[in-house]
Amino acid sequence: MATRKPKVIVTRKLPDSVETRMRELFDTELNVTDEPMSRKQLIEAIGRCDVLAPTITDKLDAALLAKVGEKLKLIANFGAGVDHIDVAAANAAGLLVTNTPGVLTDDTADLTLTLILATLRRVIEGANALQAGEFTGWAPTWMLGRRLSGKRLGIIGMGRIGTAVARRAKAFGVQIHYHNRKPVSHLVSEELEATYWDSLDQMLARMDIITVHSPHTPATFHLLSGRRLKLLQPHAIVINTARGGIIDEAALADLLASGAIAGAGLDVFEMEPRINPKLLKLPNAVLLPHMGSATVEARVDMGEKVIINIKTWMDGHRPPDRVLTQML
Ligand code: 8YV
Fold first, then answer.
1. How many A from CA of 80 to the centre of ligand 1?
2. SS (H, E, C) the chain
3. Does domain 7-102+295-327 have CATH number 3.40.640.10?
4. Nearest alpha carbon, ligand 1 atom 9
5. pLDDT digits (tens, 9 = 90+) for 222-256
6. Does residue 80 line the site of ligand 1, with CB under 6 A?
7. Which residue among 13, 275, 276, 320 is least enclosed by CB atoms within 10 Å?
8. Which residue of 83, 293, 295 sits with most ligand 1 atoms within 8 Å of its CB, as the best mutation to test the pocket?
9. Is the pTM of this model over 0.90?
10. In the chain, which segments carry CATH 3.40.50.720?
């Protein structure tokens, strides 16, 4: 490695402490306006930096990565999910890609439980009714939701976040079921008293709550298709804090509207930040603006991971959080 500081372009505003440290360590260019970069700006940026630190709002597809010149060597993503980056194309262009796993696990799992409870207990509907002046006094049959304890939770994707959700749900007296590429270790399975379903279709038909925690890849695009969503029981609810594209959003909206599915708690959307207009009108849909990792702690820790990945690379070592195509 040359001794000069690498040129790092950060595409969005990061927490102050992270930006300060980055400026100390690297020749860092920040985004003071926090406006997402246009495609033109991204192309211009990858032509003149050694390291790009992007986020989910930057689409780094094969066509854009084909324009990578001699300079760019590392894409140090701020975030765990990398479905906005064509990792295979990046690797083919000789680029390393890193992400920030682990540090947003607990916060995303907490938000998942928040959505499960908010959907089952109609929290947003109740709060909205009160603010609209509709609370005229307690009534035995008003605003009834469903109890969480004793329900069957089907987790799709039992990685870090799926497992963290299972631990929390177990403390609420929930029965844990999961579908994954392979079963988890005996130790984890015993701790969670979890049931493994090789067949996603069979699991879907038997659950009260479904929650999605797999990465978004071509293999998981519309994994919850219209056909699969129709396998759910009418009292079931669907939760998604992973990526919108894993669920066929239009089919979900139709099934929620017709009452074929009881409710949904969604933090992510297929065409983010655009939301299917049908969803916006549904009282049984709890919708959040991609807040899974939105805590001060997670965002600072994510920034620190970005810094460690860049610094390790700068010092001539392999960065700890490399994303390899075979991992996806
Ligand atoms: C991040 C996320 O905040 O890390 C992820 O995969 O979904 C979010 O919580 C976002 O990706 C930042 O780029």
1. 6
2. CCCCCCEEEECCCCCHHHHHHHHHHCEEECCCCCCCCCHHHHHHHHCCCCEEECCCCCCECHHHHCCCCCCCCEEECCCCCCCCECHHHHHHCCCEEECCCCCCHHHHHHHHHHHHHHHHCCHHHHHHHHHCCCCCCCCCCCCCCCCCCCCEEEEECCCHHHHHHHHHHHHCCCEEEEECCCCCCHHHHHHHCCEECCCHHHHHCCCCEEEECCCCCCCCCCCECHHHHCCCCCCCEEEECCCHHHECHHHHHHHHHHCCCCEEEECCCCECCECCHHHHCCCCEEECCCCCCCCHHHHHHHHHHHHHHHHHHHCCCCCCCECCHHHC
3. no
4. 293
5. 999 999 999 999 999 999 999 999 999 999 999 99
6. yes
7. 320
8. 293
9. yes
10. 7-102+295-327, 105-287
Domain 105-287 belongs to what architecture?
3-Layer(aba) Sandwich (3.40)
Q: Using the mean position of ligand 1's atoms as its centre, give its distance from the Cα of residue 230 in Å.
A: 29
Q: How much distance in Å is there from the Cα of 51 to the middle of ligand 1?
A: 19
Q: Which atom of ligand 1 is nearest to the CA of 268?
A: 7
pLDDT digits (tens, 9 = 90+) for 39-94: 999 999 999 999 999 999 999 999 999 999 899 999 999 999 999 999 999 999 99
